[in-house]
Specification:
By secondary structure, the chain is of the alpha/beta class. It has 16 helices and 19 strands. The protein has helices at 2-12, 15-19, 22-39, 51-64, 96-99, 107-118, 131-144, 155-168, 188-193, 220-237, 261-274, 294-297, 339-354, 363-381, 405-417, 443-457; strands at 74-79, 82-85, 90-93, 123-124, 148-152, 175-179, 208-212, 242-247, 250-251, 257-258, 278-282, 306-309, 316-320, 337-338, 386-392, 395-400, 420-421, 423-425, 431-435. A 7-stranded mixed β-sheet has the order 5-13-12-11-8-6-7, sandwiched between helices. The chain has a 4-stranded mixed β-sheet with strand order 1-2-3-17. Helix 6 runs antiparallel to helix 13 and helix 7 packs parallel to helix 13 (339-354). The termini are far apart.
Length: 458
Amino acid sequence: IKMGINKIMKEKFNKNNLLNDERIIKAKELINDTIKEYQSKFVNKINASSSSMKKNLDQAKTLRGGRLFFPYISSGLGNGSKVLLTDGSIKLDFINGIGAHFGHSLEILRNASIDATIEDTIMQGNLQQNERSFELMKLLISTSKMDHCILTSSGAMANENGLKLLFHHAPGKQRILAFEDCFMGRSISLAQITDKAKYRQGLPSTIDVDYIPFFDWRSPKKSTQKTIQVIHRYLKRYPYQYAGICMELIQGEGGYNIGNTEFFKTIIHIMKNEKIPILVDEVQTFGRTSELFSSSHFNIIQDIDIITIGKLSQACATLYRKNLTPEPGLISQTYTSSTTAIECGYQIINYLIQNHHFGQKGKNIVFGNYFNSLLKKIAKKKPNKVSGPYGIGGMLAFTPYNGDPVKVNHLLMRLFQNGLMGFTTGSYPQRIRFLLPLGAVTNHDIEEAIQIIEHSLK
């Protein structure tokens, strides 16, 4: 009898048996078929109006203490690269919550969400985690070849944890090196590193940061030499005071500026000689270049001490070497992330790997090159209105109107009105950037986006 009861209990609490129960499978099929039916009714309605939409926007402004950037309130239904708003309009979404989405209403993520919903632990964290957390951590460690992984709920917290590791293992050292025009976040400490003074207005000073020039593709050798000189000047001025260097390899908020391998290896060589640990912020670049990690894209991942990721990964993470293992209680992990985010992150990474998104002939580079080739044609036809393009893979940008911020923002809003969502990057010149929905984008979507850009420039 005891053996029989044990067998029943094991079957009852076997997660795979539950997820593969024919009733669950049939429920998924019914949900997916129903959503596909609604998606088939999508009509490219660019502009629409709704009194309830305006009411919700006014309410959002009151509740938030400030308006939404776009008049965007989702209906809850999308179709790949497109999203249906509550006013009935459909937008081609090429910014995806600044890179946090993989595509709208995708079946792979819907199934992952259903599986996660069935699970008991809704919000995972320091005291409560389930198996999928460990599966995601193992996947990130195996693909990065780092030693340890701490999951967290935001890119800012991933960067905060990375900074803690740096300072924790460098007691008495108060300074950080970072690139000019970098962006690391808006928390009190991260705002000190982000090279934008308005994000620090009224905030107390918490970290001493010294900025070094970023790579300039127009003069590679000269810009690299300039950066070396500035680094040595700081090292001489503040000897043995640097806890680490924080590096973006592609500046997501700074204008989609791209470094190169020789530039980064030169900096890394200096840091290694000075025993200064290296943190690479990949919150925006993760999964968007020719490799899962942009550190691998530039062939420097073996030299990095800490990597932070987020956005496309849904659940964010700090990956680090074992020599930086912290004492208990240092790292914040009360809430890791929701089970849904963790499951979706796992599925997204696997999808990218298994569906040939990486490598120089992978989909990321192919889609990025196609978009850039069409942007170049616009720049050739309209040299007074467009320059560029910039970026790589799933991160693309162009400079309209010589980067005049007022004109760029006006164009951004015209693009939205005409059915295409992007965002700005850089200060002056300011650019318009796109983060492709890599789980859904097609050549047709890219061609449609180009048509909207050309029309909006008129």
